[in-house]
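In response to the reviewer comment on reproducibility (Comment 2.3), we provide here a single inverse folding case reported in full, input and output, so that an independent group could reproduce the run without further information from us. The structure tokens appear first.
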């Protein structure tokens, strides 16, 4: 049941993150789209679960999703315009080390898995056009499945915890509104297994994110150039005012120029 509650919490975070997409109303193209950056990536994490028989640190892989709401319109010093809110979900359940497999442990229970759903503050430096470095501090829910522990009951194979994380990274613009994100994160899971030392998974994620605000501004300046030029020329020949042709909705340029018919 606790595992299902964690899944429900992750789904709720995704739903909350999606609400601004349908609730945001922008009256003018010049204001850009909603200040959202969203995407996903592939993660590789040191799961902080000791070492194998060869002394190697145990790593696993998984999937991460991000939704960032940038507070670009915040009033105050320009330094505050880098603030934002991030929602992050991560599922580390791939690349299980052989030493933790059921076959190796002669076990039929669940395999190692670490899931997190967190939210918090992100600060992004937008001084440069092509690269946006950032730092973040998050907190949320962590869910972990693990093999049997020597000093614990056989049924104790899962736990949920309030977890925290610090991280940093950078978004590198690849094409128009698409950025490649490199993300590093350090997590801490306190009070697990009665130990005074927290579990501290650490890893990196490489992914792709999409800047909705930049996309809206791009399409606002690239809407139906042939029709726009034709209507402008006809308006000039007939002495009518030149039409304005910049009315994109949700990132799609929709031309609202009046059609002028010759007599």
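Designed residues, in position order:
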């Amino acid at each position: 049941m606790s595992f299902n509650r964690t899944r429900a919490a992750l789904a709720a975070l995704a739903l909350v993150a999606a609400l601004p997409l349908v609730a945001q109303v922008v009256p003018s193209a010049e204001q850009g789209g909603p200040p959202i950056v969203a995407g996903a990536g592939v993660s590789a994490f040191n799961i902080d679960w000791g070492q194998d028989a060869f002394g190697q640190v145990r790593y696993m892989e998984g999937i991460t999703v991000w939704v960032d709401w940038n507070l670009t319109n915040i009033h105050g010093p320009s330094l505050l315009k880098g603030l934002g809110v991030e929602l992050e979900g991560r599922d580390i359940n791939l690349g299980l080390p052989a030493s933790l497999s059921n076959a190796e442990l002669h076990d039929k229970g669940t395999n190692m898995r670490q899931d997190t759903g967190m939210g918090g503050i992100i600060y992004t430096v937008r001084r440069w056009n092509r690269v946006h470095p950032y730092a973040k501090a998050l907190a949320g829910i962590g869910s972990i499945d693990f093999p049997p522990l020597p000093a614990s009951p056989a049924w104790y194979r899962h736990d949920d915890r309030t977890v925290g994380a610090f991280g940093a990274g950078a978004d590198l613009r690849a094409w128009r509104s698409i950025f490649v994100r490199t993300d590093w994160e350090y997590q801490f899971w306190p009070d697990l297994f009665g130990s005074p030392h927290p579990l501290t998974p650490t890893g990196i994620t490489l992914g792709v994110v999409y800047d909705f605000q930049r996309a809206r501004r791009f399409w606002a300046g690239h809407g139906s150039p042939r029709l726009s030029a034709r209507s402008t020329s006809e308006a000039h020949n007939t002495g009518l005012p030149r039409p304005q042709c910049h009315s994109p909705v949700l990132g799609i340029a929709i031309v609202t120029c009046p059609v002028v018919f010759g007599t």
